[in-house]
Design goal:
alpha/beta; 36% helix
Length: 239
């Protein structure tokens, strides 16, 4: 497959997924929207991945390219049936592009936390082979507050109801981060908005604390990432 990736911070790339893509011979082409790179024609690609970023979906005045990005996502998913994977901001952008709503989180989540699968998640393809409750990296201060029509909730957490969604057979997204690697926390903590959120939730030693917590879970993080990656490919092939 040739996959187009919409990125919003150079250090927030597909992470562990890059290794899996390379091993399987797939091609990933990342576009840095935050650096004003232009979105190419989706006709040249077989899938669309939209990654995380420090901006919020409603900050269109500050980041005017968000307007075009949301329109592009909707056209790809709704009109052209392009297989979609969204991570964190990419999860929120999918929901809003399809008619849902995103708001500031009542309970910001930063850290290694539990997510549990809903009945839809347990019985669907996307999380097949994943335990019904698992730990993942969370780092967000906004959340999907209203589901788009036609979407189903696949996973939730104690602090966030809509942790993962499926829209028809074309699009999947998660609020948490499956793509974490050994250097993810260090790299992301260099983004001011992320660093501030980390200090607020974990204190001045938040970087080391979160790095240590991720190190303990890294094998499981990577195992779950590979399983979901394979499941997404399988779901995409069915379209």
């Amino acid at each position: 497959m040739r996959i187009l990736g919409l990125q919003h911070a150079r250090v927030e790339h597909p992470g562990y997924f890059r290794r899996l893509l390379n091993e399987d011979g797939h091609e990933y082409h990342g576009i840095e929207l935050d650096e004003e790179e232009k979105i190419p024609n989706i006709e040249n690609y077989d899938g669309l991945w939209v990654l995380g970023g420090p901006m919020d979906v409603w900050e269109e005045e500050k980041y005017p390219w968000l307007i075009e990005e949301k329109k592009f996502i909707r056209e790809c998913v709704v009109q052209k049936g392009v297989p979609y994977l969204g991570l964190c901001l990419g999860h929120q952008l999918l929901a809003e592009a399809l008619g849902g709503s995103v708001e500031r989180a009542k309970t910001p989540e930063v850290g290694v936390m539990d997510v549990y699968l809903t009945e839809e998640g347990l019985n669907g393809v996307f999380f097949d082979g994943i335990e019904d409750r698992f730990k993942c990296l969370q780092w967000h201060g906004a959340e999907v507050s209203e589901m788009p029509e036609g979407a189903k909730i696949l996973a939730s957490s104690e602090g966030c109801l809509i942790q993962a969604i499926k829209w028809e057979t074309r699009a999947y997204s998660v609020q948490f981060h499956l793509e974490a690697e050994a250097d993810t926390v260090k790299n992301w903590s260099e983004i001011p908005a992320y660093s501030q959120a980390l200090v607020m939730e974990k204190g001045k030693n938040g970087v080391k604390s979160l790095e240590d917590a991720c190190k303990v879970q890294m094998e499981n993080f990577n195992k779950n990432a590979e399983r979901v990656y394979l499941n997404w490919l399988q779901a995409s092939a069915r379209i």
